[in-house]
């Protein structure tokens, strides 16, 4: 079992998941369908939150109690969360520039931007994975346990699984094909990347879930499942070719929510922990205030890491095989043109 879903809180945990999933799907629809929705979610809201984050940082530096006790400062003050939030927001803004042809969004040379920003986001996670592997090894040498305490007060369990998943993340970057195959939908509501078909989406989702499971254990029930399924669900049923836009929109929205209200996933009745920690702890807040855990069961971590690299190796193998058969560079050209999802997405695209 991947997560500890049991006891009196099980219904709250499931309800929390449903609310997050539904909320992300709805927010994505609002953001993608109108300019006003996109501007609010990815320009106005991030600017307002930036002022809020700066105020917290200044207050904490001056020793103000309100800032030192603030949820964001106590539980979301690590480099990764801020890097992920602003990288996701930058992606959303760039995608709107391409979709609406704002400024450099009209230029042909700007079309690889989605690849670049997704690659940056993946590399941020890869660095975090490798950091956990190194910290786990150092902790093992010093204490005999692979548990190490992150700067956000979370006990992480670093090991070989982090190296394996980090390598899977690097492979995942090269599973993105057709970098110049970026289109605007006829209705002007979507930026489309038709060559990003189900093979890549599956490889990305398995890798990214594993990343969150290993490195964001107090969040992974939500950011590892609900957040990943929301864009995939939309792309599967009504937004063919728009997965990467869905992903950026939902990721940025979730990052902003989680940065301001981390206790929802860390310390409320809706909080869920991975099976790594056993049943001793009911939520991340208890875990964060405890001494180094004595129990650890990393079986699920190892299984997911192996699955992540296997799926990504299979994906890159398919890409190499197709590119050789079609005599195409898979990054300059689209190679999944025979697939139904690609054809549906292209039917939605405006002529260039």
From TrEMBL:
This is DUF5692 family protein. InterPro entries: DUF5692. The keyword Transport does not apply. Signal peptide: none annotated. The keyword Flavoprotein does not apply. It comes from the Bacteria. It holds the Pfam family DUF5692. The chain crosses the membrane at residues 12-31, 38-59, 79-97, 160-184, 219-239, 251-277, 302-320. Keywords: Membrane, Transmembrane, Transmembrane helix. It comes from Maccoyibacter intestinihominis.
């Amino acid at each position: 079992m991947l997560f500890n879903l049991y006891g009196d809180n099980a219904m709250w945990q499931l309800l929390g998941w449903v609310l997050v999933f539904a909320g992300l799907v709805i927010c994505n629809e609002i953001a993608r369908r109108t300019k006003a929705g996109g501007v609010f979610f990815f320009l106005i809201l991030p600017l307002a939150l930036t002022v809020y984050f700066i105020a917290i940082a200044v207050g904490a530096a001056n020793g103000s109690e309100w800032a030192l006790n603030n949820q964001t400062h106590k539980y979301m003050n690590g480099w990764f969360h801020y890097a992920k939030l602003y990288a996701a927001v930058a992606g959303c803004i760039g995608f709107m520039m391409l979709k609406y042809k704002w400024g450099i969004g009209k230029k042909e040379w700007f079309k690889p931007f989605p690849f670049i920003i997704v690659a940056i986001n993946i590399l941020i996670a890869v660095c975090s994975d490798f950091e956990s592997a190194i910290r786990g090894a150092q902790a093992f040498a010093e204490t005999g346990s692979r548990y190490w305490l992150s700067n956000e007060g979370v006990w992480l369990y670093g090991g070989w699984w982090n190296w394996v998943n980090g390598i899977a993340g690097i492979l995942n970057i090269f599973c993105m094909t057709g970098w110049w195959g970026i289109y605007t939908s006829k209705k002007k509501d979507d930026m489309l990347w038709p060559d990003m078909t189900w093979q890549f989406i599956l490889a990305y989702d398995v890798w990214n879930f594993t990343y969150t499971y290993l490195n964001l254990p107090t969040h992974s029930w939500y950011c590892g499942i609900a957040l990943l399924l929301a864009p995939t669900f939309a792309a599967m049923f009504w937004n063919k070719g728009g997965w990467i836009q869905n992903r950026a929109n939902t990721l940025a929205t979730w990052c902003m929510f989680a940065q301001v209200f981390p206790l929802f996933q860390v310390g409320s009745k809706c909080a869920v922990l991975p099976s790594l920690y056993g049943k001793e702890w009911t939520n991340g807040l208890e875990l964060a205030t405890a001494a180094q855990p004595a129990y650890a069961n990393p079986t699920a971590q190892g299984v997911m890491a192996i699955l992540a690299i296997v799926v990504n190796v299979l994906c890159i193998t398919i890409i190499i095989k197709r590119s050789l058969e079609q005599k195409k560079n898979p990054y300059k050209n689209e190679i999944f043109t025979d697939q139904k999802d690609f054809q549906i997405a292209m039917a939605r695209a405006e002529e260039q």
